Amino acid sequence: MSPVFAHGALRLYLLALLAESPKHGYEVMQALERRFGGTYQPSAGTIYPRLSRLEEEGLVEKHADGRRTQYVITDAGRAHLAERQGELDALETEIGDSVRRLADEVRGGVRDAMRTLRADLAAAERDARSTRSSSRPASAPDPEPASSTPHGRSEPRADDRADLRAAVHEVDLAVTRMRAEVRTLVRGASVTAASAREVLAEVDAAAARIRAILGR
């Protein structure tokens, strides 16, 4: 069980979820997972015994819903919630703080991965310029005279430099767009810890593939 739930707290929270609307057992588990942003994924062995206990206490009732069973809070259950509203409010605050901390960690991980990717691209641009300068044979005729520095060193042709700058600029724009899109999605209400971790893994994998392409 998640450590956020002290003794009896999960039972109280299940009752609060049913006060929102009747639910099947699986819907209760989904609602819990959404509330915790995916950080808590309850099992059937955890949830159903507690629902049965609530039924024994007269706080919920089971109603047939086709081939499934729906759990419905009773008047006694609502009265019980009202008596313990202070505990429920404190529990909601703890859950909110926990989910916000996790979201901050995930966003920080995505930002770090994007920063690393941009640094790799910048380094690749420098390496490409150096390679183009050093790999041109000294005796080969240059169809377009290379410019010279004040000390006589040759530089890449202007069209080569322009092509490289344009390509790197396009990559930089693509990275910026992706960062903005990922940031917006990660801050969305539908994100879960599990899905955010998958995004982070994909960003890390993409950065690794780019490093392999650029030979770093």
TrEMBL record:
SUPFAM superfamilies: Winged helix' DNA-binding domain. Coiled coil: none annotated. Keywords: DNA-binding. Residues 131-150 have a biased composition (Low complexity). GO terms for molecular function: DNA binding. Residues 14-83 form the Transcription regulator PadR N-terminal domain. Residues 122-163 are annotated as: Disordered. It holds the Pfam family PadR. InterPro entries: Tscrpt_reg_PadR_N, WH-like_DNA-bd_sf, WH_DNA-bd_sf. Residues 152-163 have a biased composition (Basic and acidic residues). This is DNA-binding transcriptional regulator, PadR family. It comes from Agrococcus jejuensis.
